[in-house]
Design goal:
The chain is an all-alpha fold and 153 residues long. Helices cover 70% and strands 0% of the residues. The protein has 7 helices and no strands.
């Protein structure tokens, strides 16, 4: 026998993605992965553009690949974000020597900023309230205080 279940409005994919993104250091992991990807792309640049191939070329590909992997791990396993972010900053700084000056500084900066964002993310932080909403709440509280004070006088 079938049981009728009332239809509940299902959240759309955008709302579901926002909820998923709010529970992890999304921007930190994304920037770290993008930094590693950018460094990997600069490794494929023409030889006229390549400045420094680095230790037999292996480390030039290994470090940015690990950066991409760590960025994805930060996104999908945020409980270990401290270890991943510390390792990510070390790999980002190491790409300075091994991979075209860190992907011509762009990948190095993306990786360093992403690692710092992931390191500083706090999982139990309350959502930020915009300045406009805070002012509106303050005005409402001030209005209720003045109306209560006028009623007792």
């Amino acid at each position: 026998m079938l049981i009728a279940v009332p239809e509940r409005p299902r959240p759309g994919p955008r709302l579901a993605f926002r909820g998923w993104r709010a529970r992890r250091p999304f921007w930190g992991g994304l920037l770290l992965a993008l930094g590693g990807g950018e460094i990997l792309l600069t490794e494929k640049a023409s030889l006229k553009v390549v400045l420094h191939i680095g230790m037999q070329g292996l480390a030039g590909y290994l470090l940015p690949t690990l950066m991409v992997l760590l960025g994805l791990l930060i996104l999908f396993n945020p409980s270990q974000r401290l270890f991943y972010s510390i390792t990510g900053i070390l790999l980002s700084l190491g790409s300075w020597l091994t991979s075209n000056l860190g992907g011509f500084f762009i990948g190095l900066l993306l990786g360093a900023i992403g690692s710092c964002l992931a390191f500083g993310w706090l999982p139990d932080q309350e959502p930020r309230v915009s300045r406009r909403k805070r002012r509106k709440q303050q005005r409402a509280e001030a209005h209720t205080l003045t109306s209560e004070g006028a009623g007792t006088a």
